[in-house]
Specification:
about 230 residues, mainly alpha, 7 helices, about 65% helix, about 0% strand, disordered C terminus
């Protein structure tokens, strides 16, 4: 009687003993793959650098405008006619570059968190532009994006950074709008207070952009959660 050679599966409904360890090893290797298939996530470093440069330029422009334009007496005629248009153009450019960076971070956070962000993509951008809403909602949006990007809770130091940054930014905006009506725009103490707040907000804003983008860069390189699979029985 002729028997099949060892390792030959002919005449048997079961794989040979030699094939089972190879199959188990291949399944083990495949379960350790850490690449997200077809993932569009990429840390937006180019947008981050543009946003940081824009924040730095806006800080310089706002300090210049507060000290050399707002502080001058009304009707003095010493304010250049191009000062206000230039200030407005710089502000618009800063807003656009910052929102481009935030939109890309928000898109990445939606992918990294499997779409578990509580605010829609459109509202996450529009909230920065709606009066009164933009005094509080954007702070929470930044924290949500940062937390979703890191796949966990925001670290306490990062939360403090965002809170102090946003407090300085809101304080600068409120004092810029109401300072002239209450104290008079030409008073130097008001201009100095506005300048201090805008410098603090600008520096901390640059750090916030860096911290959020770095968190997304780490999340992209980190392996995604892998569901454990039982090895096939031998």
């Amino acid at each position: 009687m002729i028997r099949p050679a060892r390792g030959d599966s002919a005449g048997s409904g079961h794989p040979s003993r030699r094939m089972v360890p190879c199959t188990a090893a291949r399944a083990s290797r495949e379960s350790q793959v850490t690449v997200i298939p077809d993932s569009p996530v990429k840390a937006p470093w180019a947008s981050a650098r543009c946003a940081q440069a824009a924040l730095a330029a806006a800080t310089v422009a706002d300090v210049w405008y507060a000290l050399f334009v707002r502080s001058r007496p009304a009707g003095s005629g010493s304010v250049p006619p191009w000062a206000m248009p230039l200030y407005v153009r710089v502000t618009v450019v800063v807003v656009v570059l910052f929102l481009v960076w935030f939109a890309r971070c928000r898109r990445n956070a939606a992918v990294l968190s499997a779409g578990r962000l509580p605010v829609s993509r459109v509202l996450a951008i529009v909230a920065w532009l709606i009066p009164l809403m933009n005094l509080w909602v954007p702070r929470g949006l930044v924290l949500q994006v940062h937390g979703a990007s890191s796949r966990g809770a925001v670290a306490p130091r990062d939360a403090r950074l965002v809170n102090v940054w946003w407090g300085a930014w809101v304080g600068h905006g409120v004092l810029s709008l109401l300072g002239g009506a209450v104290f008079g725009q030409e008073r130097l103490p008001v201009s100095l207070a506005i300048s201090v707040l805008v410098v603090v907000a600008g520096v901390l804003g640059i750090l916030v952009v860096q911290r959020v983008t770095s968190g997304q860069a780490r999340a992209v390189l980190a392996p995604p959660p892998v569901t454990a699979h039982a090895a096939p029985a031998l």
